[in-house]
């Protein structure tokens, strides 16, 4: 598990995190992830669905297992960063009319068009754990 600050400072896959960068360790339960995988804890409510019981909802505290070695496709959940501010964000990657977007699940937040290279995807979410449950 790393901090969002460290996720935002992610430069390239070659810059793998060191063991001492981890704040804690998280088990991966589904499938396998690459050697550069990391975990983040969701902060805020932009990815919390307003629909009660929605299985695609990521409340604050959800643990995300992220693999930067996996290609992200439309519909995947991703971690992206703004290369200017170095801030990372968790959103759903969407493609429409020849343009790429980062879409939150919570309609109180705006969809953001990706202005590459200003914003780039740094990893695909492979697994999530809510209260240590898959």
Structure description:
This protein has one domain: Umud Fragment, subunit A. Strand 3 (77-82) and strand 4 (88-96) form a beta hairpin. The protein contains 1 helix and 7 strands; from the N terminus they run αβββββββ. The protein has one helix spanning 4-8; strands spanning 38-41, 63-67, 77-82, 88-96, 99-103, 112-113, 119-129. The protein is mostly beta strands and 134 residues long.
Relevant terms:
134 residues, mainly beta, Umud Fragment, subunit A, seven-stranded antiparallel beta sheet, 7 strands, globular
Write the layout of secondary structure elements.
Layout: H1 4-8, E1 38-41, E2 63-67, E3 77-82, E4 88-96, E5 99-103, E6 112-113, E7 119-129
Short description:
This protein is mostly beta strands. The protein is built from one helix and seven strands. A seven-stranded antiparallel β-sheet has the order 1-2-7-3-4-5-6.
Assign the CATH superfamily: Umud Fragment, subunit A
> What characterizes the major β-sheet?
7 strands, antiparallel
Q: What is the number of beta strands?
A: 7
Please report the first level of CATH classification, the CATH class.
Mainly Beta
Radius of gyration: 14 Å
- Indicate the CATH architecture: Ribbon
Kindly report the CATH topology: Umud Fragment, subunit A
Distance between the termini: 16 Å
